[in-house]
Write a structure and sequence with these properties.
This protein is an alpha/beta fold. Helix 4 links the parallel strand 2 and strand 3. Helix 13 packs parallel to helix 15. The longest helix has 17 residues. Among the domains are: 53 residues, Oligo-1,6-glucosidase, Domain 2 (Oligo-1,6-glucosidase, domain 2), CATH 3.90.400.10; 130 residues, Glycosidases (TIM Barrel, Alpha-Beta Barrel), CATH 3.20.20; 33 residues, no CATH class; 80 residues, Golgi alpha-mannosidase II (Immunoglobulin-like), CATH 2.60.40. The protein has an eight-stranded parallel beta barrel with strand order 1-2-3-7-8-9-10-13. A five-stranded antiparallel sheet has the order 14-15-16-20-18. Strands 4-6-5 form a three-stranded antiparallel sheet, with no helix packed on it. Bound molecules: alpha-D-glucopyranose and calcium ion. Calcium ion (CA) binds next to loops.
């Protein structure tokens, strides 16, 4: 059953799934909704609270479904609306919520609206899209897909006019100055909420409207429409959420929360590369700086924290220098780069070093926000940089060491993409089944971390304050919520480190390490000294223990 706290998303652990890549139930080589239903037990076991499904709508699939050709259906190879309802029922009965992508900004050029729109300027749907006689309008708007696109305008020989698109040229932007479009997309939203969905990850929201002389991002008019969407949710769909994909600076993302009346959640894009930078430079400054630049958000809002997703690891929110550093340290081979970013998975980015994988996950699990796991990263799946576009990080989920990694019973040649097959990341080494059987696997560790996180609302709801020890390789912060105080310490260095922390205000407390439940030495008025293994970390409970005399006990050390 679902927990009915209206702020459920503040404590939730999210998990991102491209339906196509997760599990194939009918052996056609493409993952589908029935396949996903069959894997809900696994997601429940792992402790996931909410799934984010990538677009499953009918589509020519030239942008993996973000090019929608019919908002009201499920693509045939994924299943039917009936299957979707069944997925929702079964997920809900396990206490798992499901949000899906709502692609507001554009459609496929194959969408009936566009086909009608381009027919003639007299067509009632002409103004569903943004047409122009010249391609010299809105010149301040940047190009996002720099690998493939030269302009945000494309000439349409049928309409004899240019149409506007912020992404691929086969994805014309909808015209949100047209009230009919605004209403049409609200209708799409209600339709899916009526099927029982728990909300949306709203794709590419900064770009909904255009105004001459601006960069055409984050416009006040765009926020007006997004607030309209939120009003619709609040009126009729309590407990459902909106999560914003706004790849912007924190100060520009802040308005997407409004006064708690726009988005419930937004991804924290700029923090993500700084976690990788901090790790490689062995310095906590880039991470702390990013929090200094992150404004407070309303109480009913939440950041969504991630390490990887289905796109390139975006470096758009980096300075030129930072970008060079990231490319140099994480993508020296040009084949690893896409647009302004790096198309690799977590494990290969971190040299398959279990300590680094744990460390970065520990950060997103303990910083203010709700973490989201990209499918396969919980077992340390690899990527295939030879594949085009962002396909290298969208390969089939590795369930077993059997045929096609247990993803599909089809002939391997029929798979939508090949299973990663190198000797380090192939399914003989990396798969769910064997990691479930091994008590100390990465998967078991992720499960444990999820469990522990869920015992403490302070992780999702608490404040954060950074301690500033002289050892700049050690990142230390306190999360506080009601009576609880948790001290989180990360060693970003490849060598063991010692750190002195000023914990005077907790004098008398005997910290308990949360992952192993061991008691540490009492805090006194003097600096508290901790030593950390290379890439080591501690989650320490500093909440004063009122449950009677403290035992010293090694006997309390549990696995
Ligand atoms: C978002 C999606 C990306 C897609 C783009 C265009 O950024 O995450 O995968 O290509 O929108 O729809
Ligand atoms: Ca299938």
């Amino acid at each position: 059953m679902l927990n009915n706290d209206p702020l459920w998303y503040k404590d939730a652990v999210f998990y991102e799934i491209p339906v196509k890549a997760f599990a194939d139930s009918n052996g056609d080589g493409i993952g589908d909704v029935q396949g996903l239903i069959g894997k809900l037990e696994y997601l429940k076991w792992l402790g996931v609270d909410c799934l984010w499904l990538l677009p499953f709508y009918p589509s020519p699939m030239r942008d993996d479904g973000y090019d929608v050709s019919d908002f009201y259906n499920v693509a045939e190879h994924f299943g039917t609306k009936e299957d979707m309802r069944k997925l929702l029922d079964e997920a809900h009965s396990l206490g798992i919520r499901v949000i899906v992508d709502l692609v507001l900004n554009h459609t496929s050029d194959q969408h009936a609206w566009f086909q009608e729109s381009r027919r003639s300027p007299e067509s009632p749907m002409h103004h569903y899209y943004v047409w122009s006689d010249t391609d010299r309008k809105y010149e301040k708007a940047r190009i996002i897909f720099i690998d493939t696109e030269k302009s945000n305008w494309t000439w349409d020989p049928e309409a004899k006019a240019f149409y506007w698109h912020r992404f691929f040229s086969h994805q014309p932007d909808l015209n949100y100055d047209n009230p009919a479009v605004r209403e049409a997309m609200l209708h799409v939203m209600s339709f899916w909420l009526d099927q029982g969905l728990d909300g949306f990850r709203c794709d590419a929201v900064p770009y909904l409207l255009e105004r001459e002389g601006t960069i055409c991002e984050n416009l006040p008019e765009t926020h007006d429409y997004l607030k309209e969407i939120r009003r619709r949710i609040d009126e009729a769909y309590q407990g459902r959420i909106l999560l914003a994909e706004a790849n912007q600076w924190p100060t520009d993302v802040r308005p997407y929360f409004g006064d708690g009346d726009e988005f419930h959640m937004a991804f924290h894009f700029p923090l993500m590369p700084r976690l990788y930078m901090g790790l490689r430079s062995e310095l906590c400054d880039p991470i702390i700086d990013m929090f200094t630049h992150t404004p407070d958000i309303p109480d009913n809002c939440q950041w969504c924290l991630f390490l990887r997703n289905h796109d390139e690891l975006t470096l758009e929110m980096c300075s030129g220098e930072e970008r060079d550093y990231m490319y140099y340290t994480y993508a020296r081979d040009p084949k690893m780069r896409r647009n302004i970013g790096i198309a690799r998975r977590l494990a290969p980015l971190l040299d398959n070093d279990r300590r680094k994988i744990e460390l970065l996950n520990s950060m997103v699990f303990t910083m203010p926000g709700s973490p989201i796991i990209y499918y396969g990263d919980e077992i340390g799946m690899g990527d295939d940089i030879r594949l085009k576009d962002r396909d290298g990080v969208r390969t089939p989920m590795q369930w077993t060491m059997g045929q096609n990694a247990g993803f599909s019973a089809c002939d391997p040649a029929q798979l939508y993409l090949p299973v990663v097959s190198d000797s380090v990341y192939g399914c003989q080494s990396i798969n769910v089944k064997s990691q479930r059987e091994m008590p100390h696997s990465l998967l078991q560790w992720m499960k444990r971390m999820i469990e522990v996180r869920k015992r403490f609302p302070a992780f999702g709801r608490g404040s954060i304050s950074f301690l500033r020890p002289t050892n700049g390789k050690v990142l230390a912060y306190v999360r506080r919520h009601e009576d609880t105080a948790l001290l989180i310490v990360h060693n970003l260095a490849a060598s063991a480190q010692s750190v002195e922390l000023d914990l005077k205000e907790f004098a008398g407390v005997r910290p308990i390490e949360l992952l192993g439940e061991a008691r540490f030495a009492s805090i006194t008025g003097s600096p508290y000294v901790l030593t950390l293994a290379p890439y080591g970390y501690y989650w320490l409970n500093l909440t004063p223990d009122r449950s009677g005399p403290e035992s010293y006990g090694i006997e309390q050390t549990a696995l």
